[in-house]
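Retro notes (design track)

What went well: tokenization of the new backbones is finally stable.
What didn't: we kept losing track of which sequence belonged to which structure.
Fix going forward: every design gets posted as structure first, then sequence, in one message. First example under the new rule, 124 residues:
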């Protein structure tokens, strides 16, 4: 303790597990059920993004496609173990999902509603 006092590092804090638990940290999104992002939003850190892992969720996008057409990603979320992407390709809304690097499942529709749970059943 004398060394800690000498180098002005008191008080010592040995609560490593408690400090590492994100549920104990303040959160500006905890309890929120709806998120709206402005055009041009590029990246959100995981602690600032809604949790979409193993929870029922809905993605909604209002999209204006120019007369000449347009393609691209509307929203995506994922990492090394899997994720999903909602995108426009060839004039159709599409949802691609990958789980535990088992290959990509893509469902393409002209309709606006997707059932992610129907697409992510285990592959044989």
């Amino acid at each position: 303790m004398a060394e800690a006092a000498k180098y002005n590092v008191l008080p010592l804090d040995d609560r490593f597990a408690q400090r590492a638990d994100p549920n104990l940290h303040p959160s500006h999104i905890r309890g929120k059920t709806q998120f709206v992002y402005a055009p041009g939003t590029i990246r959100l850190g995981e602690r600032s993004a809604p949790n979409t892992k193993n929870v029922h969720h809905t993605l909604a996008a209002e999209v204006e496609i120019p007369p000449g057409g347009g393609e691209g990603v509307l929203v995506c979320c994922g990492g090394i173990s899997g994720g999903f992407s909602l995108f426009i390709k060839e004039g159709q809304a599409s949802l691609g999902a990958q789980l535990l690097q088992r290959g990509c499942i893509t469902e393409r529709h002209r309709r606006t509603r997707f059932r992610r749970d129907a697409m992510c059943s285990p592959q044989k």
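Added context from the reviewer: The first strand starts at residue 72 and ends at 79.
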